[in-house]
Amino acid sequence: MKPIWIVDDDQSIRFVLEKALAREQLATRSFSNPRDVLVALENDQPQVLVSDIRMPGGSGIDLLAKVKAKLPGLPVIIMTAYSDLDSAVSAFQGGAFEYLPKPFDLMRAVELIQRAVDESLREAVIDTAGTEMPEMLGQAPAMQDVFRAIGRLSQSHVTVLITGESGSGKELVARALHKHSPRGDAAKGGSEGPFIAINTAAIPKDLLESELFGHERGAFTGAQTMRRGRFEQADGGTLFLDEIGDMPFELQTRLLRVLSDGQFYRVGGHQPLKANVRVIAATHQNLEQRVREGSFREDLFHRLNVIRLRLPALRERRDDVPSLTRFFLAKSARELGVEAKRISDPALERLTAFDFPGNVRQLENLCHWLTVMAPAQVVELKDLPPELMAVDVARQAMAATQAGGHSGEALSRSAAVSAALPERASAAAPQGALVGAAPSGWLADLQREARRLLESGAPEVWDSLSKQFEGQLIHAALEVTRGRRIEAAQRLGIGRNTITRKIQELGLDD
User: Fold this and answer.
1) What percent of the chain has pLDDT over 70?
2) CATH T-level assignment (fold) for domain 4-121
3) Which of 82, 357, 476, 510 could cross-link with 419 by S-S, CB 3.0 to 4.6 Å?
4) What is the separation, in whole angstroms, between the first and last Cα of the chain?
5) Continuous H helices in 263-358
6) Beta strand pairing status for 273-274 and 263-264?
7) 3-class SS at 58?
8) What is the pLDDT of residue 470?
């Protein structure tokens, strides 16, 4: 591994970092000014560059720009005693891995440099800057079924009804059906014709008829010119009617007539018009239920439901989350003109376990948020938004509540939950345990274990259970922070010296 380069005009800073990194078996090379760094880069390069921001003979921000131009993948950590917002923004805009204000905690600095080393050793992300966006992504069996159906339908102009939850990608399926329909047959809605999409739920009821069928001049107040509707615009191509279940009942009758004979009238018009359009409809609603309720015409339902294609929710295709995440991170980076973020395995596991009620759209929005907000090039577990952490914690708590038994494993599991929910645990613990009420969940596990030890005459029950409890708390915190003790102590609400002492006392270093 290549050495860590340290750039600072303060000799004491260089000395302290050199010694601290040497204890971690990390080689270093020090420089007192940016000029010497640029000269050294002609023949060598570092694993990580750690640079001060204000030095005689050059700025750390300028050095960052020059280094990134030469080595775009090199992690650069910017140090400064001027911890102002402008410096931070400049550092991150320039592509800095992290921003470290002085005076810094030495242990935190070493941990940060180690993170940067890990980042530099990861396999480089495949450059996707010149690749076209694929129509759809999915290796999960549920998506493979969808792809096979699109393939079978590619030689047909039959009407298709796509069902699936909001955000699951129904319009992408419609576009794929249009794209792969037979070419050179515009009279039947071929792929060479236009693809026109309209969300019937997003347009006010009074305007939807005009949107679909157009209007003549003077048909209503404000209709100063003739306007072609979506059916006319889609002539020779495909009309995608999204959220068809929300279409007003009276318009359903007009739509049925168009689907039956292909003829319609503009609003205020008297001349019948004809459009050769392939209709693809989509909905997140249960149309059969809406038919039973009388809010959707049964004959229209059967006219649309020639071929039904169900699109799975993202939670039904969890195997696709990793590839979708990496794709959306790369896509967001291209749109923003920045380097694509990478994602750590623990963070990816958390995303895969999340149910994503907003489906693929929610995952795409999340990746865009991470591209902007994640502080480093590698997205860690702690960088994920709170809603993902809260749902996972709630799932752990539910699992612990439902679990029975009084084994040591049950105690460990419940202690891990208590590490994730310290406030909830402290609020719930006293009353149930002290007044004799029956506790639940992890408290019940703890009480059963304590009772077993007390009844068996085991010595030092208090110390034994306290050590197990503290050990699991610290172990869980270190897992969450990937071994970073200072951050683990902060999350647990204890001091740095306390966590170090407890780790030694409990033998967690072993």
Assistant:
1) 81
2) Rossmann fold (3.40.50)
3) 476
4) 26
5) 287-293, 298-304, 321-336, 345-353
6) antiparallel
7) strand
8) 85
Query: 139 is written with which tokens?
Result: 């290796």
Q: What is the pLDDT of residues 241-290, one digit of tens each?
A: 999 998 998 899 889 988 888 888 888 888 888 888 889 999 999 999 99
pLDDT of residue 457: 81
- In this structure, of 32-41, 188-197, 406-415, 462-471, the range with the lowest mean pLDDT score is 406-415
Residue 45 corresponds to which tokens in the numbers above? 């390069």
- Extents of the domains making up the chain: 4-121, 146-311, 317-371, 388-505
User: Could you give the CA distance from residue 504 to residue 305 in angstroms, rounded to a whole number?
Assistant: 67
In which residue are the tokens 């059906």 written? Answer: 177
Collapsing DSSP to helix, strand or coil, 459 comes out as coil
What's the one-letter identity of residue 428?
A
Q: Does domain 317-371 have CATH number 3.50.50.60?
A: no
| Distance in angstroms (rounded) separating the CA atoms of residues 61 and 452 | 62
DSSP per-residue letters across 407-422: SHHHHHHHHHHHHH-H
Tell me the CATH architecture of domain 146-311.
Answer: 3-Layer(aba) Sandwich (3.40)
Spell out where 102-176 has E strands.
Answer: 160-163
User: What are 222's two structure tokens?
Assistant: 């404000």
Q: Tell me, what's the pLDDT at 207?
A: 84
Cα angle 284, 386, 415; round to 5: 115
Sequence-distant (≥ 6) Cβ neighbours of residue 46 within 8 angstroms: 2, 3, 4, 5, 29, 74
Instruction: Name the band, by pLDDT with cuts 50, 70 and 90, for residue 137.
Output: low
286: three-class secondary structure by DSSP: coil
404 band by pLDDT with thresholds 50, 70 and 90: very low
C-beta contacts of 96-105 below 8 A and 24+ residues apart: 96/64, 97/48, 97/376, 97/377, 98/375, 98/376, 99/375, 100/50, 102/13, 104/79, 105/486, 105/496
Long-range contacts of 20-25 (CB under 8 A, 24+ apart): 20/106, 20/109, 20/110, 21/110, 21/113, 24/110, 24/114
More confident residue, 235 or 417: 235
The widest CA-to-CA distance across the chain, in whole angstroms, is 96
Residue 28: the pLDDT is: 94
CA 34 from chain centre, in angstroms, equals: 38
Token pair in block for residue 29 = 């090379």
What torsion, rounded to 10 degrees, do the Cα atoms 311, 312, 314, 319 define?
A: -120
Same fold, 4-121 and 146-311: yes
Place of tokens 């969890």: 318
Q: What is the DSSP letter of 315?
A: G
Task: Report the distance separating Cα 131 and Cα 353, nearest Å.
Answer: 29
CA distance 208 to 381: 45
